[in-house]
């Protein structure tokens, strides 16, 4: 009889207790295996009616490869359990040996229960493996019988050779090999059969023709569109504040801004309603997805709201939401990927399948982050519905970067471009890229009483520096020293405990100020000075609206993606000649002074001149609440990127040209007796066409004549006749894909016409070409709209 000390008995009991859950688990595995086999085999030999499932031979796969796969997985799982238990046993044995080297014989005793259990698990694993093989044989025989019985129906599930659906055979082949790569296919009923492939590819996607034996009425049924409701201007924004959500500092900032501007939005709505009169406006269903605020995109902005981070994007999004809501449209707002998927109807899976329902939104406003998220999760529906998307794009996207094939071939591909959208679907913060739509934002508008109070309360020698982050102040000691000779300098640089060393001691730093307090500071100051960064933000317009003069640096050479890190990778070649080009070009002196900061004498002379200059508060109409409402109303009412594009290819244009040469023989105009192009917006009556000088962009050529380049007019000029009407004979005419066409090649008289509509562009120039440029007039204070655009 073997005697065991008390410690050994305790360890044996502990081992048995530890292993008892494994026994229960193995028992459960066995029971589950039995149930699964009964279900699978029962399903194989049960009779089924044809109407039981939209896929007539679905049981073949559900009981076939999937069953065998599950059995194999169960066998693998049991083998894995053996390995894990063996490892645990070895660790336990090793631990016990270290604790009691003298009791080595007990370690072997302690392993014996586990060893026996492992043998039983191995036996079960072998049994499951044997069962899997037998089930495989039974199912193969069953499928063979089923195939013979249903041979007639199988013939109807062969991939058709239909010239109207040339991609169908290839898609069926792909489905055979890859249908299990994404669970979304099974969600739509794909089960590995030819019929399920064809049903999916004809009814969910659109690569194959409908199967004649399918219930076409049921397959083609779509929910009836909701009856159109007329939109009504709103003045109470409390519901919008609820729609915007909470929980993020960025959303809190946006809601505070919206609440502060409520009265101005209400007043603007009343004015625009009177201006538009009885125009009927359909209420649109609009989804607003702010992609850069989602956790999946990193949401780098929210944590920096209270630490001096950039607020321009949040200012613009807050104003977009307010404008859409005030115009009377129905909004959904999402700031998470989960919310986006739910609102779009994304099926479960990895994003390869179309949406589960027709897109319930007329328009979607998002950013580049949101655009990428939608492409990843909408499958083929993204291509189908992308014409409804509007992309908020601060710095703009030029056509050469937007066209994927062209960008790849000609070196314009970046991380942010190549979406193949209509360039007008990109909406910018400032009107710097005519190829895109100008969205903008708003600044607070002062009434006459407030303007007079500001003029009376201005300090003649007070300056506020544009820049909340310490990095902006580095290396600016020379400018600050000159400015300090004439003015008291104030800053709003963020800091936590200690004063930032980059801010000189003679600067009165207020720290990061809430927006109302910052506005009050601007109302006292004479000068708002920028040091070259940030580019094109809203703050200079707010300063000018509060009666400040804005002083900024001129860039020589101009900054662009070719020579400056900040712009590198952005989908534009635009050259920025100053910190705020809009303020320089559209406002100018006396409100805006642009000087060479590298010239100390010019810088100092500008400060002296500004101190003697008196200015009134000024805000361009397009940055008022009414101006933004008017602009977005026009876009929603007239921009339709889902309609078929106009004629651009040879032989497609009208035989009789609608153009006439202007009396001074310098440009083309739309003939008065010619009918307007139906559906064209802006109306073609505003078109003026000029032949630009070599090396000039169409944007610059139009501005030279006090006009704006209008890319939507390019198709009307894309013909040999347009050159002839300008008295430019073409020795030859070629159609090519190039973002500078239509153009006249120099030297020689070769005329080049545009082959790809998405490449019509106001941007871009070459000394080799004289570009044929479409221009239009614009409303005073509203550069985005022509005289007849409302």
UniProtKB/TrEMBL annotation:
Keywords: Glycoprotein, Glycosyltransferase, Golgi apparatus, Membrane, Signal-anchor, Transferase, Transmembrane, Transmembrane helix. The chain crosses the membrane at residues 21-41. It comes from Heterocephalus glaber (Naked mole rat). Pfam families: Glyco_transf_18 (PF15024). It is an enzyme of class 2 (transferase). Its main location: Golgi. Residues 184-775 form the Glycosyltransferase family 18 catalytic domain. The gene is MGAT5B. It is found in: Golgi apparatus membrane. This is alpha-1,6-mannosyl-glycoprotein 6-beta-N-acetylglucosaminyltransferase.
């Amino acid at each position: 009889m073997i005697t065991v000390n008390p410690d050994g008995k305790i360890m044996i009991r502990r081992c048995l207790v530890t292993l008892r859950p494994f026994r229960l688990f193995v028992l459960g595995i066995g029971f589950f295996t039995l149930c699964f086999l009964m279900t699978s085999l029962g399903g194989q030999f049960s009779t089924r009616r044809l109407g039981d499932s939209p896929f007539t031979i679905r049981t073949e796969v559900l009981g076939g490869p999937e069953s065998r796969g599950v059995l194999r997985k169960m066998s693998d799982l049991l083998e894995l359990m053996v390995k894990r238990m063996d490892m645990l046993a070895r660790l336990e044995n090793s631990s016990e040996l270290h604790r009691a080297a003298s009791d080595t014989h007990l370690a072997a005793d302690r392993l014996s229960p586990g060893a026996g259990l492992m043998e039983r698990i191995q036996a079960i694993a072998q049994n499951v493996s044997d069962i899997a093989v037998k089930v495989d044989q039974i199912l193969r025989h069953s499928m063979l019988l089923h195939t013979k019985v249903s041979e007639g129906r199988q013939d109807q599930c062969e991939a058709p050779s239909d010239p109207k659906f040339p991609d169908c055979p290839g898609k069926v082949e792909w489905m055979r090999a890859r249908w299990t790569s994404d669970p979304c296919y099974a969600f739509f009923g794909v089960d590995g059969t030819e019929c399920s492939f064809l049903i999916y590819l004809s009814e969910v996607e659109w690569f194959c023709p409908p199967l004649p034996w399918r219930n076409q009425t049921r397959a083609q049924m779509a929910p009836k569109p909701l009856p159109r409701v007329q939109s009504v201007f709103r003045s109470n924004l409390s519901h919008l504040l609820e729609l915007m959500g909470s929980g993020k500092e960025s959303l809190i900032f946006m809601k505070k801004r919206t609440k502060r501007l409520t009265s101005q939005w209400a007043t603007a709505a009343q004015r625009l309603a009177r201006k538009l009169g009885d125009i009927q406006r359909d209420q649109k269903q609009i989804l607003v997805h702010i992609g850069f605020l989602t956790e999946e995109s990193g949401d780098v902005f929210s944590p920096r709201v209270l630490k001096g981070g950039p607020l321009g994007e949040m200012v613009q999004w807050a104003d977009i939401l307010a404008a859409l809501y005030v115009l009377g449209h129905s909004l959904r707002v999402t700031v998470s990927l989960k919310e986006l998927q739910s609102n779009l109807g994304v099926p479960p899976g990895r994003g390869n399948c179309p949406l589960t329902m027709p897109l319930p939104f007329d328009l979607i406003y998002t950013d580049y982050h949101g655009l990428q998220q939608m492409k990843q999760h909408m499958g083929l529906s993204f291509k189908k519905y992308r014409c409804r998307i509007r992309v908020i794009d601060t710095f703009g996207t030029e056509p050469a970067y937007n066209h994927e094939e062209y960008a790849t071939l000609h070196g314009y591909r970046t991380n942010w471009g190549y979406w193949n959208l209509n360039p007008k679907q990109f909406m910018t913060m400032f009107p710097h890229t005519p190829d895109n739509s100008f969205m903008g934002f708003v600044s607070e508008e002062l009434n006459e009483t407030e303007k007079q109070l500001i003029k009376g309360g201005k300090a003649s020698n007070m300056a506020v520096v544009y820049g909340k982050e310490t990095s902006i102040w580095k290396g600016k000691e020379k400018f600050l020293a000159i400015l300090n000779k004439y003015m008291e300098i104030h800053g709003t640089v963020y800091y936590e405990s200690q004063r930032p060393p980059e801010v000189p001691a003679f600067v009165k730093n207020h720290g990061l100020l809430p927006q109302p307090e910052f506005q009050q500071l601007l109302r006292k100051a004479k000068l708002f000075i920028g040091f070259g960064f940030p580019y094109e933000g809203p703050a200079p317009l707010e300063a000018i609206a509060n009666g400040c003069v804005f002083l900024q640096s001129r860039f020589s050479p101009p900054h662009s993606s070719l020579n400056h890190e900040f712009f590198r990778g952005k989908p534009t070649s635009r050259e920025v000649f100053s910190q705020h080009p809009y303020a320089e070009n559209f406002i100018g002196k006396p409100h805006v002074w642009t000087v060479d900061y590298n010239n100390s004498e010019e810088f100092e002379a500008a400060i002296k001149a500004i101190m003697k200059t008196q200015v009134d508060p000024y805000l361009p109409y397009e940055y008022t609440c009414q101006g933004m409402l008017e602009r977005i109303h026009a876009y929603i009412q007239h921009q339709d990127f889902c309609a078929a594009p106009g004629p651009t290819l040879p032989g497609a244009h009208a035989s009789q040209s609608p153009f006439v040469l202007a009396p001074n023989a310098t440009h083309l105009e739309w003939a008065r007796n010619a009918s307007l192009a139906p559906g064209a917006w802006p109306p073609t009556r505003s078109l003026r066409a000029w032949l630009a000088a070599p090396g000039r962009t169409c944007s610059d050529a139009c501005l030279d004549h006090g006009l704006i380049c209008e890319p939507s007019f390019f198709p009307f000029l894309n013909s040999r006749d347009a050159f002839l009407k300008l008295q430019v004979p073409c020795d030859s005419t070629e159609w090519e894909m190039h973002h500078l066409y239509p153009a006249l090649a120099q030297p020689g008289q070769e005329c080049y016409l545009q082959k790809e509509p998405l490449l019509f562009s106001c941007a871009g120039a070459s000394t080799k070409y004289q570009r044929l440029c479409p221009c239009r007039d614009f409303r005073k204070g509203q550069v985005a709209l022509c005289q007849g655009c409302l």
